[in-house]
Write a structure and sequence with these properties.
Blueprint: E1 8-13, H1 18-32, E2 36-41, H2 66-81, E3 85-88, H3 117-131, E4 135-138, H4 148-165, E5 181-188, H5 189-202, E6 211-212, E7 221-222, E8 229-232, H6 237-246, E9 252-254, E10 257-259, E11 264-267, E12 271-278
Parallel strand pairs: 1-2, 1-4, 2-3, 4-5, 5-7, 6-11
Antiparallel strand pairs: 5-12, 8-12, 9-10, 10-11
The structure holds zinc ion.
Length: 295
C-alpha cells in the first residue's frame, strides 16, 4: 500500500494569488489526499493593481497597505484549498514586490528582484530541509511571462533545490535533502486555444469582462508535447475557483473564466499542467506528480 501521508509537495510562488491560479486544483487534490502541501510565497504582492473600486486606496501609489491585505486573502485562499502550511520567504515582508519588468520599483532596495540569490536561496533551503519534499513546483526560467518576481522565484527555487542537497552547505540549516522531482508550471497551446474558443462561444465578453485576453497573455504556454504531467480536473474545480475568488483585489472570477486587473477575460483551467525538469518520470504522461516516488 502506498502511504499517501508521506507525500510532501513544495510550491514556490512570487505573489499571493499565483498559487491559486497556477496550482489551485493540484494543491486541493494533494491536501485532500493527505499529502503535506507547503506553499512558499516570496513577496506580499504590494505592487498589484486593485480591482474593487472600494479597495483601490490600498494600492502602492495611495495608502500602500495592499501587502497586509493580501496576507489575509492568501490565508482565505489556503483555507479553501485545505492547505495549512503556507509561509513567506524569510517571513512576511522580507522581500517586496518588484513591480512589472522595467518599472522603477525594480530598483527599489528590498525588492525581490534585487535580492541576493544565495541569500534568498538559503532561506528556502531551510524550508526544504525541514519539510523534505519529494516534489517541487515552480515557474520556468522566464517566470511564465517575464515578471521579475516570477523569474527570481524560479532562480531561488532551483538554486535552493541544489543547495539543499549539498552536504557541505550550511549544516546549521538542517540535514541535506535531495528533491526527487522538480516541475515547472506550463499550459499546452491546445488547452489555451480551446479555452479561448469556449470563452468566445460563451459570448460573455461584454458581460463581466470588458474584453478578452490574447492567448499570448497566458503565462507558460508551451507546445503540447512539452507537457509531461496533467493533474486536477473537475473534482477540484470548485475549490480552485473559491481560492481564486479569495484573492478579490487581484482576480474577478465568472464561471469557468476569470480576469485580472486588466479586465480581460481568460479561461480558468481546472486541469493543471507540468513539465518535469529533474528526476525520473513515473509514466510517459503522468497524472500524479508523485508517480515513481512512493514505495
Ligand atoms: Zn505573480
Amino acid at each position: 500500500m502506498t502511504d499517501l501521508s508521506g507525500r510532501r509537495l513544495l510550491l514556490v510562488h512570487a505573489h499571493p494569488d499565483d498559487e491559486s491560479i497556477n496550482n489551485g486544483a493540484t494543491m486541493a487534490k494533494y491536501a485532500a489526499e493527505g499529502a503535506h502541501v507547503t506553499l512558499v510565497t516570496c513577496t506580499l504582492g504590494e505592487e498589484g493593481e486593485v480591482i474593487p473600486p472600494g479597495l483601490r486606496h490600498l494600492a502602492a501609489d495611495r495608502d500602500d497597505t495592499l501587502g497586509a491585505h493580501r496576507l489575509g486573502e492568501l490565508a482565505a485562499a489556503m483555507k479553501e484549498l485545505g492547505v495549512t502550511d503556507h509561509r513567506f520567504l524569510g517571513g512576511p515582508g522580507r522581500y517586496r514586490d518588484s513591480g512589472m519588468m522595467g518599472a522603477p520599483q525594480n530598483d527599489r532596495p528590498g525588492c525581490f528582484w534585487r535580492a541576493d540569490l544565495d541569500e534568498a536561496a538559503a532561506l528556502l533551503v531551510e524550508v526544504v530541509r525541514e519539510v523534505r519534499p519529494q516534489v517541487l513546483v515552480t515557474y520556468d526560467p522566464d517566470g511564465g511571462y517575464g515578471h521579475p518576481d516570477h523569474i527570481q522565484a524560479h532562480r531561488v527555487a532551483m538554486r535552493a533545490a541544489d543547495l539543499a542537497a549539498e552536504p557541505a552547505f550550511r549544516r546549521d540549516l538542517g540535514d541535506p535533502h535531495e528533491i526527487a522531482k522538480v516541475y515547472w508550471n506550463c499550459v499546452p497551446l491546445s488547452a489555451v486555444e480551446e479555452g479561448f474558443a469556449r470563452l468566445r462561444e460563451a459570448g460573455r465578453e461584454g458581460d463581466l469582462f470588458p474584453g478578452v485576453a490574447a492567448p499570448s497573455d497566458v503565462p507558460g504556454v508551451v507546445p503540447d508535447e512539452e507537457v509531461t504531467a496533467v493533474v486536477g480536473g473537475s473534482a477540484h474545480a470548485a475549490r480552485k475557483a473559491a481560492a481564486m475568488r479569495a484573492h478579490a483585489t487581484q482576480i474577478a472570477v465568472d464561471g469557468p473564466f476569470f480576469a485580472l486587473s486588466n479586465d480581460l477575460g481568460q479561461p480558468l483551467f481546472d486541469t493543471e499542467y507540468y513539465k518535469l525538469v529533474r528526476g525520473r518520470a513515473g509514466a510517459e504522461r503522468e497524472d500524479d506528480l508523485f508517480a515513481g516516488v512512493d514505495g
